Every structure is written in C-alpha cells, then in structure tokens.
C-alpha cells in the first residue's frame, strides 16, 4: 500500500479485507515485528515499535474519504499497510500519502456506481458498454446522417470567402446538428474499444462526452430550448459510457469478450435496422431543421416505465451491478425527451438552465438510489451465503446419521 517514498496503492483486485489478526496487530501503540527491522535493532528485539495514536487517527480520517462499501472491505488492510510504511518517529501522514489517498478516494467515488470491487465493476462495465452501444447507435447514426445532409446543402447563403469556404459544410453540419462532433467521436471510441485499443477508446469517449456538454451549453446560450434539453440526456449517456470505458481500461484481461462482442453486434444491428431507414426517410422528406415529434407517454406511464425497467435490471442478478448506471441514463433520456421539466412547454422561447441541471440531478439521484438498493441486496446475499455455509459446517461436524437411527425433521 504505502512504501517509504510515500506512494499509496489501494487494493482494487476485489480481494477481501485483511483478517482480524492482521488488522489487530497494528494497534495505535505498536507496529508489527515484520516491519520493525528498519526501526532499529532494539525494535527488532522487542518485536514492536510505538506508533503515535495521532498518526493512526489521521490515517483513519483519510480513509473515511473512501466509499462505505469499499472501506468495509479494505479499511483494515489499508490501515495496516500505511502503518507498515510509517517511518520511525513519524507523527503525521506525509503530503504524498495525503495526496495519494485523496486521489484514490476520488477514483473510488467515480467508479462507485459500477460496484465496490473489481469483479463487480468488470461485469457491470461490460454490460453498460453493450447496452449503451446498442442504445446510442440509432440516434448517433441519425445525427451523422443529418449532419452530412446539412453539410451537402447549398451554401450560397453563407459566404466566407478564401480558405474559409472549405469549412462551410462543417459549419452548416454543426449548426444543424450540434451533437454531430460528439457522435462521430463516440463511434470512434466504440470501434477502438472493440479493436482492443483501450487508451484510444478512453480518450475518444472522453472527448465525445466533453463535446456533448459543450453542445448542450451552446444550445442553452443560443436559446434553442428543446434541442438543448434533449442534448442534456445524450450528454449524460455519453458520460456513463466514459465511466464504463474507464473501468475496462483498468482491467488486465481482454477488454470485451467474444460473447459480449457478439451480443453488441446483434443488438446494434437490430437497433439500426429498426431506426435508421425511417430516420433517413423523414430527414430527406422534411429536412434537418424539423424537430422530432412530441413525447407520446403521460407522466404516470413514464414513471411506470422507468421504475419497471430499473426494477427489472436490479432483479436480474447477472446485470444487477450495471442497473444503477443504466437506470440513471434511462431517467436522463426519458426526462430530457419529455415535458416534465422543460420550460418550453409553456414558452417555446424560454431557456432555463435549472431545467437542464434538473435532468442531471434526477439522473444522479436515480443512480445513487439504485446503487444503494443493489448494495443492500449484495449484503443480504452474502449474509445468506455465510448462514448456509455455517449450517453446512455444523451438519458436517455432527456427521451423517446411520441407517435405522432417528433423525430430527
């Protein structure tokens, strides 16, 4: 965890916390004999070296920065390693230790929606990538088609002259479809990820999410209310995709397995086959400046659909860890494409930044609630497994009954 140079490495392989013996040997007044050799011969003979209680207290305060589920599994182990690396006479954590612990805590909070352990995050990130790739393929392709058609339009009304004339199609495409750069970058990230280029996929997905945020902000500034409101939902989905790619990038195994890749291809092909032909026909007939049709569901139907979808994700154990992230994305997309928060339902020229932030807030709230439910279900499953193991061990200790003997029922 912590070396003499102050570097902190937190346990992220999903291993259980240190045992009570290992954790208990690092008392506030002593350090283990295994690390006493660098404290001097007297300490080596005594077996323990005094540790200032204030150092233990400061380490524990820094460890409280980590999420609760992560601390429950790794706090004792991390504290033991920090005390192992303490220098003789050290009474406060070093600046390097503080910085490394704060950075590691920020990383754990960032990845917390995907689970508390690497095993949970590994399964959740793959499910999120597969689901979001299929979900976003349709609108991404539609936006790119619209941008191409807009760029191929007659540019006579936009005269830039000189070398700038070559940028006229790009300007027309971005003005018509502000999210087009984000979708192009996202498609590049998808191709890179399934090609095994993890770092490239992470960079491209991060740029795509940033482009989505910039596009939403530009639309708010330009007072294009409905488009800005819808773009916020897509920006949340792109941010969730970055989170999943970040988790995959930290893995040592293959980025996406064969089964996940096959499922992604089939789901994406089905979505494109159902959405792209109609989108191309509507765009060619009506033009790129026509807004999408109104949201068809009532508020009650929308709430029922969202709650039912999230509950189904939580109930299915193989995809349970991905439910918080996918639930947050689903809430953002549904709210952004409805008139629940959009002030444009009353005034088509009104732009309220609070409405845009409300979409993000509702998405985060849904993610946190779903994560809490999943964590409680995991704890319940662990308790049941431990109880069954205890009953099995007790039954094995008593031995099997011989034929003819009475057995309790």
UniProtKB/TrEMBL annotation:
Region Disordered, annotated ranges: 1-47
Claim: Repressor is one of the keywords in the record: no
Chain ranges passing through the membrane: 126-152, 164-189, 201-221, 227-249, 256-275, 295-316, 323-342, 354-374
Keywords associated with the record: Membrane, Transmembrane, Transmembrane helix
Protein's name according to its UniProt entry: Membrane protein DUF2157
